[in-house]
Structure formats: structure tokens, C-alpha cells
Amino acid sequence: MPITLTYPGVYIEEIPSGVRTITGVSTSDTGFVDFFERGPVNTPMRITSLADFQRTFGGLFLQSEASYAIQQFYLNGGQIAWVVRVATPNMMPPASHTLQDSTPVNSLKVNALSVGAWGKHVEVAVDRLGLPTGTLFNLTVKEVNPLTSQVTQEAYRGVTMDATSPRYVVDVVNRGSTLVRLTKVVNILPAPPAGSPADLAFTALTGGVDTDVMDNLGNPVGHEAAFATALQGSDTVNLDADNIPRKSGIFALSMIAPYIFNILCLPATARLVGAAGTAGATARNLLLTAAQAFCLDKRAFLIMDVPFDRTLLDQMQNPSTGFAAELDSATLRHPNTATYFPNLTLADPLNQNKPRLVGASGTMAGIYARTDAARGVWKAPAGTDADLRGVSFDLKLSDLENGGLNPLGINVIRSFPVFGSVSWGARTLKGADQAASEWKYIPVRRTALFIEESLYQGLKWVVFEPNDEPLWAQIRLNAGAFMNNLFRQGAFQGKTPREAYLVKCDKETTTQNDINLGIVNIVVGFAPLKPAEFVIVKIQQLAGQIAV
């Protein structure tokens, strides 16, 4: 707004430059949705390391495919994961124990921090050792890991039942405990167990259970629908146990704004095999269809695991019953999805280091992240640099066998001398030769998603601005600077910016009728880099050449 001129002299007025920097969004933040040993339910948690995952969700868990996938994610170069723990009604409520006074009358209810059988290994003890007679007491909570015998203990000294006191036990414990939450029943001082010795007398929490869906995943007959429904969750807002509005399952990832996720992995779908007829395959396909639609809406990419019942080559490419045929019949061929074959094996530390079959999604998500950091999202996560760490596989494919799957849009993991196990494919599920899709290659599709999300985030300031040439010029300036920066990083084809990209926003893209409707149209185009999938070396013998 112009300065009001009142006195003779020199006035200084700052004029906006119109420069609004568009920053590229993340490219490899990965979402994992599954059952876990512990942790908040339907609450996406930002995890930055394997140790962080172990603290929040308990680490490796025999019934959780995603726990092993997350371990592989970090081992292969992943950095940021968004983890969502799901549960079924069978797991409710958490393990608990009610502390009483000497009468006995219920005083305090102690609940495990989250649902699951882990809560049965939590114990509580009350004592008044070292305290003067009065209203103060000590509360001790500990967990004994049944596999490692490791003890985690928390001690709260000199707490009280007085809600007005800064040492009010409910506030003190609920604010700091990583094991339990307290609820006051009545304002009565809890007492140590009658006749307890001078040392602490612990009492275990009871009632925590794992769902029967988890217990029977090895033979999921009759549980496929419940299992898949829990993973898919709901896109509608529901109230959780604390009366906090939440979405559930995969849709819980929509609650992480202003953060985003770029890759989605659902490793548990590999266990939903075709047992009991087609029940498992049907449940899996319904879940994956919902996940693909969700990824399309969020501009994310789904890495799909091959089911564990598809372990042989003929089970993959059989034209009538193979996995490729299943993809076609279930309409799972989607540009925002890729899959990798064969499944992998790793040494399971929870089962005497015996081989455990796992899907490739967690490992490949780590490779995506590693490649993005080293080369950019426009580089295919494949080739001799895309080596797999911490896993092996039994099925070694030849070139001709590889050639039977690649045209179907199924990426292959290969083993080569010197280079070891590597990702040897870069096609989306729309990359089958017969589809002739413009989104044939993973790096092309992920580059487009990156540009779309970056412009979506970076152009929100345009909304409600005066829709005329000054605005269009600012849009061209800012979007053009963003695209030019990508060009300088080597993200596009072409030797000049004119050959590599275009940004158009003017009276040709936005007509007077568009202006009347409140619309501004921005056209952004780019020439993508496509991977050199086939390298052809032509050898010719030169004989009798005449020197000139």
C-alpha cells in the first residue's frame, strides 16, 4: 500500500519482488501399516531409526511382517518412516491391574500403555519404604522381556492421591511413563500387599491379548477378511479409546499433515495367500485396490509384495493362474505401483536365526531412499548400485527367465558375480509391454509425483490473488525457477531449458471465461529421463580397410 505523503522529504517504500521460492518435497518418506507388538493404535508415528522403532513399537515381532520390513528399510538406506499400528476388536482393552487399599477398595487402575499381549509382562508395585507416615507412597513399574529377560523399570517416589499436588500420581506417571497409564477410581491411598516383605512385591497386569488374526497368520483360513479390513481401516473419522478423532488403517497416514509420505508398504499382504479357496487372494486384492486409490490421491507410490504362495516362476507368469494373470483380473495394474520377484529370506533373530521368508517392499523402499539421496528421484532404483543388504533369495533367474517377467511389468531381483543381489527392473505395473503406458518406468512416474506435490505445496499462495497478468508473471517466475533448478541437477532430457521443460501461464491458458469462473490454468511440462533398460553393443569385424 502506498505511503501517505505528509511532509516534504524522502520516503522509503519496500516493493515486493514477487519471488516465492518453491521447495522440492521429500521423495522417500515411507509409510508402513501392520500389526506390531506394542505402540499407539491408528496413530502415525514419525520414525527416524531402527532404535526409534524399537522404542515405540517394540522392534521385531514374529507376527508382524512390517517389523522385518522396517528393519530392512533402514539397513538398505531408508531414513524416515511413518508407522501405523492397527488392531482388531479382539485386542481390546489393554492389560490392566487395579490397585487397592487394605480394606480392600479399588484405588488406582493401571493400564498398559497400548493394547496387546506385551502388557501381560508389565508389573506394578506399591510401597512406602523410606517415606514418613502420611499420604505419600512409591509406585514402581517394570517390564520383563520374556525373550531376552531384559528389565525396563520406572520408579515414582513420593507421589500422592491429592489431585491438587504437583506430585499427583496420575499426572506424574501419565506424563512420563513409557509403560502404563493411570486412572483414579476413588481418592483412597493404595496399600502394599498384606504381609509383603521389605523388598518390592510386584503384581502383573492381566488381560492383554493378541488378536487371533495375528496368531493364525501362518494358516489364515477364515481370518482373511478381518485381517485385510484392519489394515485397510476407514477413511471416516472415528473416536479412539481416548475420544480423539482418528482415521484408521492406511487412511491414518492422511493425518500426518503438514508432512507427507511418498512410498507405501503393506508387507502383511504377502501372507494373505489363496488359502480356503480364493478368500485370501480376494481380501488381499480388495486391500491393495484401496491402497492404490489412496496413493493416487496422496501422490504416493505403492511397492506391492508378491504373495508367499507365488514362489516359483510358473506361479508368476502362467497366463491363466499366475500372479500376472491375477494382476490383470483384479485390475491391480496401476501406474503408482511396482512389484518385485522373488521374495527374500533373512536370518530371523527371534527364531534361532532360521531363514524367514519376507517380501521385498521394505528392502526396496530403502533402496529407493538410498538412490534418491545419491542420484535423485529421476534415477531408476535398479542396476549394480541398487544392491540388497541383509537378505538373500533361493530362486536364481536366468536372462531368459528374467525376460519372461520383465515384459509383464514384474521387476526381478537378480544375483550377479561381484555385484551380488541387485534390483534388476524399473517398471511400474503399467509397464507391461502390451499396456504401452507413458508411465512405464518407475523413475518417470516418481519424478512426476515429486513435481506435482512440490508445485501443489509451493503454489498455495496463489489462491485468492488477483487473477491477471501480474499474478501469471509471478507464477511463471517461481514455477520456472523450480523447474530450472531441477534441470540444472540433471532431472530432465535436453541440453537447454527450452528442450527440457516448459511453464506456461498467460491469457492463452487462462481465458476470460476462466477468469470469470475464478480459475487460473498453469501448464507445466517436462522431458523425463528414461532408464537405459536395454544396452545393445554392435560389434563389426573390419577387414581390408584402406588407410586414407
Give a verbal description of the structure.
Helices cover 25% and strands 18% of the residues. With 548 residues, the chain is an alpha/beta fold. The chain has three domains: 30-88 and 212-444, Rossmann fold; 91-204, no CATH class; 464-548, no CATH class. The strands form six sheets. The chain has an eight-stranded mixed β-sheet, with helices on both faces. A four-stranded antiparallel β-sheet has the order 8-7-6-10, with helices on one face. Strands 4-5-9 form a three-stranded antiparallel β-sheet. A hairpin with a 5-residue loop joins strand 4 (96-100) and strand 5 (106-112). The protein is globular, with a radius of gyration of 29 Å. The termini are far apart. The mean pLDDT is 90.
Q: Which key phrases capture this entry?
A:
alpha/beta; Rossmann fold; 14 helices
Quick structural summary:
The chain has 548 residues and is of the alpha/beta class.
